[in-house]
């Protein structure tokens, strides 16, 4: 894979008047949902401990995420046109090219941003190297392609932008591919015409975009999230997939969630209206949560686990990639999910030297081998498995930073949350922040 240059704001196409008009309509619809949420929840008698934002998303706490939401929902063209620089969900800031450990302040984008950015960051960072590592052994049609629009910046590989976020979503695609899940979804598309995917916590829509591309648009894709987050995913996916359907559900009539068999596209469901979606009785082929369950309260994770049990039924799967957040005052969501979901299938990566965050597991109500036969999974040959082990070891030698990440993950898995928290503080004092 050849790295052919940089992709800057000047290389992005600008939104058309029609695209911006649709984005403005989305801003208006989401603003109404947020402004009426408390009264709606009270009027319907919903449990506020489940329905209202909590933990990292508690609006009564010091809540930096809301700053960016308010900036985007104001529906200014210069902000919407560069949405990716403002819609920050991955703890990585594209503007500063760094992991964010404190607040998520709204960035300023000056007129000469490209010139300043290119001078400050003249060379690709380690995420570009890691992307090239993890795509080395996967087929070309398993590589996610992201468009040059909405402020996507990075480095050009095979004609498409690559940056930290692209790496993160490709990592999840690799894990699904290695488990045989991508092949199974494609088989279901050939058999049924489409697949039903539910993502709980969709960020700005990057993974939804990637999977939709790999499945050639044959998806009924539902994103359940806080309305503040649905704002970004609805705009991003509306621009990148204009030929598919898009519905923002406001709770007025559950019938508006129902779609005909031939319908393809995206439904955006506020978290406090998730029971309306569950009430449709639609089976889900694939449910997804990455990195957001630990940010919720224990009651909220348990709520989703109980409902996922019915949604995935006998033939569906939950793909979940999360870390044990207890060392930083959050949750170990996996112990809570185990209360509702019968079978856990860890994904041990073959094409990824070191996973960036957390551990990836597949959850189902029947053994995963009954859903995807081991014979259908890639990398089954003994010779190739040995080659991949040697290659991963070589990557760790060539990139010592990855070895530190592997060490951190090993320590976190073996030490108590309190001990690991103390170790992390010592590391920060002497060695700088443990990079993810």
Describe this protein's structure.
- The strands form 3 sheets. Strands 8-9-7-6-10-11-13-12 form an 8-stranded mixed beta sheet.
- It is α/β, with parallel strands linked by helices and about 425 residues long.
- It contains 18 helices and 13 strands.
- A hairpin with a 4-residue loop joins β2 and β3 (about 100).
- The protein has helices at about 15-45, 50, 65-75, 75-80, 85, 115-120, 125-135, 165-180, 180-190, 205-215, 225-240, 275-280, 300-310, 335, 370, 380-400, 400-415, 415-430; strands at about 5, 90-95, 100, 155, 160, 195-200, 220-225, 245-250, 265-270, 285-290, 315-320, 345, 360-365.
- It is about 45% helix and about 15% strand.
- The mean pLDDT is about 90.
- The two termini are about 25 Å apart.
- The chain has 2 domains: about 1-385, Rossmann fold, CATH 3.40.50; about 400-430.
Mean pLDDT: 92
Backbone shape: globular
Largest sheet: 8 strands, mixed
Distance between the termini: 24 Å
CATH architecture of the largest domain: 3-Layer(aba) Sandwich
Total domain count? 2
Secondary-structure class: alpha/beta
- The helicity comes to 40-55%
Q: Please provide the count of β strands.
A: 13
**Oligomer class:** single chain
User: Strands of the largest sheet, in order across it?
Assistant: 8-9-7-6-10-11-13-12
Radius of gyration: 21 Å
How many distinct helices?
Answer: 18
The CATH C-level name of the largest domain is Alpha Beta
Low-confidence stretches are: none
The CATH superfamily of the largest domain is known as Vaccinia Virus protein VP39
Strand content: 5-15%
Briefly note the CATH topology name of the largest domain: Rossmann fold
């Amino acid at each position: 894979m050849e790295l052919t240059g940089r992709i800057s704001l000047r290389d992005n196409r600008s939104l058309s008047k029609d695209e911006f008009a649709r984005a403005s309509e989305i801003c208006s619809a989401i603003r109404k949902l947020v402004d009426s949420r408390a009264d709606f929840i009270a009027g319907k008698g919903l449990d506020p401990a489940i329905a209202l934002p909590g933990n990292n998303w508690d609006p009564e706490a010091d809540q930096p995420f809301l700053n960016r939401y308010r900036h985007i929902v104001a529906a200014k063209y210069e902000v919407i046109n560069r949405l990716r620089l403002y819609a920050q969900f991955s703890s990585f800031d594209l503007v500063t090219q760094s992991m964010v450990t404190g607040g998520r302040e709204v960035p300023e984008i000056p007129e000469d941003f490209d010139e300043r950015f290119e001078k400050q960051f003249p060379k690709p960072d380690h995420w570009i190297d890691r992307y090239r590592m993890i795509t080395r052994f996967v087929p070309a049609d398993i590589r996610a392609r992201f468009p040059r629009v909405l402020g996507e910046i990075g480095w050009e590989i095979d004609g498409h932008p690559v940056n930290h976020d692209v790496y993160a979503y490709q990592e999840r695609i690799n894990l699904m591919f290695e488990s045989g899940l991508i092949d199974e979804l494609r088989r279901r598309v050939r058999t049924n015409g489409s697949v039903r995917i539910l993502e709980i916590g969709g960020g700005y829509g990057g993974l939804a975009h990637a999977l939709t591309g790999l499945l050639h648009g044959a998806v009924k894709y539902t994103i359940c999230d806080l309305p503040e987050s649905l704002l970004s995913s609805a705009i991003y996916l509306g621009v990148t997939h204009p030929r598919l359907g898009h519905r923002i559900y406001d709770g007025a009539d559950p019938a508006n969630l129902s779609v005909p068999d031939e319908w393809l596209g995206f439904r955006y469901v506020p978290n406090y209206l998730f029971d309306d979606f569950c009430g449709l009785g639609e089976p889900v082929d694939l449910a997804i949560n990455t990195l957001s369950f630990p940010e919720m309260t224990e009651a909220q994770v348990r709520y989703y686990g109980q409902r996922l049990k019915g949604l995935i039924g006998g033939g569906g799967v939950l793909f979940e990639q999360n870390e044990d957040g207890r060392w930083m005052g959050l949750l170990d969501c996996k112990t809570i999910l185990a209360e509702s979901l019968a079978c856990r299938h860890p994904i041990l990566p073959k094409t990824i030297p070191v996973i960036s965050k957390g551990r990836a597991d597949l959850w189902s109500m029947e053994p995963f081998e009954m859903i995807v036969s081991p014979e259908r999974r890639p990398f089954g040959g003994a010779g190739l498995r040995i080659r991949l082990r040697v290659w991963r070891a070589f990557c760790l030698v060539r990139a010592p930073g990855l070895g530190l990440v592997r060490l951190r993950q090993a320590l976190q898995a073996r030490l108590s949350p309190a001990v690991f928290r103390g170790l992390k503080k010592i590391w920060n004092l002497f060695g700088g922040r443990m990079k993810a």
